[in-house]
Design goal:
The chain has ten helices and eleven strands. The chain has two domains: 99 residues, no CATH class; 242 residues, P-loop containing nucleotide triphosphate hydrolases (Rossmann fold), CATH 3.40.50. The strands form three sheets. The chain has a five-stranded parallel β-sheet, sandwiched between helices. A four-stranded mixed β-sheet has the order 1-5-2-3, covered by helices on one side. It is an alpha/beta fold.
């Protein structure tokens, strides 16, 4: 109650100027009705007395009041529309500025790299560590932040200041911190959705997969959502099955009446929250990204499923390492962080 009351008091302070404008608008609207008859008749009586004429009679009084009423009503309406017109012009100005502004200002730079990412990982070695491509000679810089300062909005204060970060391919970086400490803001800056206040952000490729905290799924079958609505002939079946197994979706799909042809969307209840998160993970994995950004996507999974997904996606023989991808994971789970670190899956831990 104290916090809400304090916020309400602050809101009223910010609204004070606007509220006084409303008061003066109402005053101006009602002045013609309240003062015009009395002022008009008073002025006429004073002029009549000075000129020696008779005072106003009944016919003149009612005629005068009728004329005043005909004039004051439009005048009051005009005065009342002035703030509305000003507000409308201001709204149109904001819309115009938005329409003529650039759709997206991407301040990221391309990093010069040698070699290329694997686009067709050896999925037949899914359970083996023989095909892991994370040797030192195959690694290169994937993401680089140099003295980056970021604020969530132009009017907000700087949340992240002087951030320096180097992330290589075939690596897993975990970001931890308190709520509202800027973890998601950092991910958005790497995605190019937020421009840094200062510093530079470099990425090796724009082939980036992103999974947000809240699963976003288009309407379609599980198969179509994961494969990006590719034609049946163009779907890589081996890679598709590997993605399902790595995300622990194969058993769940077998239990569904329609299998991977089950129609899903963000608002339906056919899939649980954890299943939706894993569908998003499988979709990101199937796209073979060079950089994968995951914003607390494992929080809705039970412990057993969580361990399976962590091992087969981020482990020493995980698919992201086989792809040569740089994985960034935001996590609020202490158990998950310790499990990944204990299994030597994590290459970097940022707090």
């Amino acid at each position: 109650m104290e916090i809400i009351q304090l916020k309400r008091v602050q809101e009223m302070k910010f609204m004070r100027h606007w509220l006084w404008c409303n008061v003066w608008q109402n005053v101006l609207d009602n002045i013609p009705y309240a003062l015009s008859p009395s002022v008009t008749l008073t002025v006429y009586a004073i002029q009549a007395a000075r000129s020696g004429k008779d005072s106003i009679d009944t016919v003149q009084a009612f005629t005068t009041l009728s004329i005043i009423t005909l004039l004051t009503d439009p005048a009051s309406r005009v005065l009342g529309t002035i703030p509305i017109v000003a507000s409308s012009i201001s709204c149109f100005d904001r819309i115009q500025n938005f329409m003529i502004s650039s759709s997206r200002e991407d301040c990221r730079t391309e990093l010069e790299i040698s070699g290329s990412h694997s686009t067709s990982p050896p999925v037949q070695s899914l359970h083996s560590a023989d095909s892991v491509f994370n040797s030192k000679e195959n690694q290169h810089l994937s993401i680089q932040l140099v003295k980056v300062s970021i604020r969530p909005a132009a009017s907000a204060s700087v949340v992240l200041s002087n951030v320096n970060l180097n992330i290589t391919t075939c690596s897993l970086s975990i970001f931890t911190g308190a709520v509202a400490s800027g973890k998601t803001l950092l991910l958005r800056a790497i995605l190019g959705d937020v421009s840094p206040e200062s510093g530079t952000i470099g990425i090796c490729s724009r082939r980036i997969a992103y999974c947000s905290q809240v699963p976003w799924l288009v309407r379609g079958s599980i198969r179509d959502v994961i494969c990006g609505f590719e034609t049946q002939a163009s779907i890589d079946e081996n890679w598709y099955k590997a993605c399902l197994y790595a995300c622990a979706l194969d058993e769940d799909i077998r239990m569904l009446p329609s299998g991977d042809q089950t129609i899903i969307e963000s608002n339906n209840t056919r899939l649980s929250g954890g299943q939706k998160q894993r569908v998003c993970l499988a979709r990101a994995l199937y796209a073979r990204p060079h950089i994968v950004i995951l914003d607390d996507v494992l929080s809705a999974l039970d412990r057993t499923t969580q361990e399976h997904v962590v091992e087969h996606l981020f482990g020493i023989s995980g698919l992201f390492r086989k792809l040569g991808s740089a994985a960034l994971l935001v996590s609020h789970s202490c158990q998950l962080r310790h499990a990944i670190i204990d299994c030597t899956f994590a290459d970097h831990l940022y707090s």
